[in-house]
Amino acid sequence: MAGLVAAMELRARGHDVLVLEASQRIGGRIWTHRFEREGRVYHGEFGAMRLPASHTRVFALVEQLGLTPKLRPFLSVFQGQGGLLDCAGQRFGFGALPEDLNLPEWPAAEGLSPAAQRFMRRLALLVTVMAPREVRDLAFPQMGRDFLAAVQRHLAEAGPAADFADPGAILAGLQAVRGRINQAFHLFLSDILLKAAEPLFQLAGGADQLPLALAARCGAEIRLGAEVKAIELTPAGASVVAARHGVTESYQAAHVICTIPLPVLRRVAVSGLDAPTRRRISGLHYAGATKVLLFCAERCWEADGVLGGASFSDRLLRQVYYPHNQDFAGPEGVLLASYCIGADAAPIAALAPEERAVAVRREAARLHPALARPGMVLDSVSIDWSAHPWTLSACSTDWDPGMRDTVPDAATAQAEEPQAWRCGPLVLAGEHCSRAKAWVEGAIASAQDAVAMLACAEPSPAV
């Protein structure tokens, strides 16, 4: 997305642009998979699947590309109907909290008011089922005596309105404990809950319509199957070497905007970089992710009262998302039966694709027993983004395991840095450079900032 947006913006300014894409498809980490049955098509998303309403650049681009009529609501965990939890061997509704559910890592709540005890147990449950392992390992040690006392004071002031069912209430509660939790925990909760609390949208028919429409409109030549092997920066510009169809090709350009994910870029021979840019490339934390899609003969989860939204598990699956706002011409449906991020993705990534399908189906049947019926699952596909050669990861993250420092009680105002990094004729862009890491919005913002850095340049060749 970042490369395509940059190409369109540069072409609009009169530059000659060539896009080199290593894979044989357009879209990067937007990747829609489609199943067909009896002439009907059903889709699921390997990559990006939701657009938060606050991400204004995405919606501006959607409108520019004529895709606004395709927008449909995407129901989050707090907006769906009937979401389930599978935690500590128990299956229950998202709004419920079994009295005997209390895991060893959860904070002790002795001495707290009943409301504070309930709030803390629900917050601990949310962290258990929603947070990646890296964040869980940092979060629970933070829930000490000072943290609990701050929560109780907040609840006393907020009254009965502060409840787990309202993500906005937890967001407000986070402000009361800023000085008592680390950055990784705070950033994760803020991001996850904020996106769960605000309206989300999706593109009917598949998210890949966005990059495909962008490629058709950007006006630049796009060469697929062109794997960048080397980039050399010189006073006169840059040289890019790529392998395409077994042939080595060399390109000369005045400027290069590089949107290659950094785990892949670390394997590319880049000469002429300054020390700060090298540190940025080598130092940014990335997370892997796995997704497993099950194409089902029936949307059997609807019989369990689940209509959109998500379910969560503390076991292999982690996150389950249900299709909605799709034009179902028959009883079939595509279930995102497992979505794992960070270290939670490792157990599924370690399985062969056919083993993943078996294991995920077995686990998903704990939530929806009908999935175990013969003939219910017609097909399955999966992806391990860490093994995908052109990404070697799912996204950059702001919940780096090294972020153990506590969040200041008062946020300090800082000038916002550009969401792209420049080193002479080379500009690095992509979601990893942005303030909206892991989101399409971040890719767009970074690409636009990258082009702005070159805005004063005369029209010239760019790769």
Keywords summarizing the entry:
3 domains; Polyamine Oxidase, Chain A, domain 2; FAD/NAD(P)-binding domain; alpha+beta; 463 residues; 30% helix
In short, what is this structure?
By secondary structure, the chain is of the alpha+beta class. It has 13 helices and 24 strands.
Number of helices: 13
Q: In this structure, how is the largest beta sheet organized?
A: 7 strands, mixed
Total domain units:
3
Which range does the strand content fall in?
A: 15-25%
Verbal overview:
The protein is α+β, with helices and mostly antiparallel strands and 463 residues long. The chain has three domains: 2-49 and 207-286 and 395-462, FAD/NAD(P)-binding domain (3-Layer(bba) Sandwich), CATH 3.50.50.60; 96-197; 289-387, Polyamine Oxidase, Chain A, domain 2 (Alpha-Beta Complex), CATH 3.90.660.10. It is built from 13 helices and 24 strands. The protein has helices at 2-12, 56-64, 114-130, 133-139, 145-158, 167-176, 183-197, 209-217, 262-265, 275-283, 346-349, 353-367, 440-453, and strands spanning 16-21, 32-37, 40-45, 51-52, 71-74, 84-87, 90-93, 200-203, 221-224, 226-234, 237-244, 247-253, 256-258, 269-271, 286-287, 289-296, 310-313, 319-321, 333-341, 377-384, 395-396, 421-423, 426-428, 461-462. A seven-stranded mixed β-sheet has the order 7-6-17-18-19-16-20, sandwiched between helices. Helix 3 packs across helix 5 (145-158). Mean pLDDT is 88; it is low at 410-414.
